[in-house]
Structures are given as structure tokens and as C-alpha cells.
UniProtKB/TrEMBL annotation:
The lineage of its organism: Bacteria, Pseudomonadati, Pseudomonadota, Betaproteobacteria, Burkholderiales. GO terms for molecular function: lipid binding. It comes from Undibacterium oligocarboniphilum. Keywords: Cell outer membrane, Lipid-binding, Lipoprotein, Membrane, Palmitate, Signal. InterPro entries: Calycin (IPR012674), Lipocalin_ApoD (IPR022271), Lipocalin_bac (IPR002446), Lipocalin_Blc-like_dom (IPR047202), Lipocalin_CS (IPR022272), Lipocln_cytosolic_FA-bd_dom (IPR000566). This is Outer membrane lipoprotein Blc.
Amino acid sequence: MPILRRLFCLSLLFWLSACSTNPSPGLQIVDHFDVQRYAGRWYEIARLDHSFERGMNDVSATYTLQQDGSVQVLNRGYQESESKWKEAIGRALFNSTPDIASLKVSFFGPFYGGYHVIALDPDYRWALVAGNDRSYLWILARDKQLPQTTIDHLLSQARQAGFDTHTLIWVKQSRQ
């Protein structure tokens, strides 16, 4: 193998190993997590902007526990500019044990991003989810809408955790 190719492969391996799926310091991750209760469909109520969901509404995520302990993730949303539905299927793995709501999710081969539940309704009706840093945040719910008091509570929690809640995108949920 030529030396340049070997150096490229080594640097790529180093870069991939440096990619962390751990949450930002200071974020409290939900423990006593029950993936069986979390499984199923969740609707996106709000999110911080990022390229892979830009321009989408009616976004949902469906989580399905797999035999090997991983979680299949089916993300679906309506791309307004193209007037069509888009889907992406990924795989999530727990960063430690399944009772701690810290996972890494991949939609693109060996590249993983963090998925950390930082607040969760005791009845699993809503969740506040962060990525690896404070530029990723989602408010998810089992229903397409949440009461304003619940939204206010989640916004307060997100602000206390250091997220800029003024830039949240409120997702329309109007299609079936």
C-alpha cells in the first residue's frame, strides 16, 4: 500500500475515533430508561435548525427495538419545497447500558451522532432530546401537540441546560 494511502487511512481512523457520541458536559441524561416504553412513534414538536431536516414539516420518528438490542430508527417528514415525503432509516446503539438514555445513531454507515434524552415524561408522553452538543435539540411527543404548560416547562428545562430556545423551529403537524 503506498505511503500516502496508508497515511490517509490512518488519519481517517484517527478522525473517526475522535468523533464522540457523548453529550456535552453538564447535560443530565435520563436514567432508569425503558426502551420498550420509548419504542413507537414520536412527533417532532420543535427542533433547532440543521441541514438534514431543513424545510420539513410533519416530522416523526418511529423507534423499534431489534433482537440484537439495537434500535431501528425511521425518520419521516414532508419536504415542503419538493412536495413529497422523505424517509431515512437508521440504527441506534446504547453508549453504555440500556437503562441510560444515551445512544449513538447512524443513518450513514460508520458515522454516528449522539441521541441523549435529557428530560422524559414519567408516562413517556414527551421527551427532550439533545445531540452531542447544544446545537441539536428536539422536543418530541406521542401526540402532534402538547399543552402550552408542558411546552413552557420543556423550554425552561432546555434554557437551564444551556440551549438557545429562541431559535427553535416549531414543526407543523397537519398531514396524516
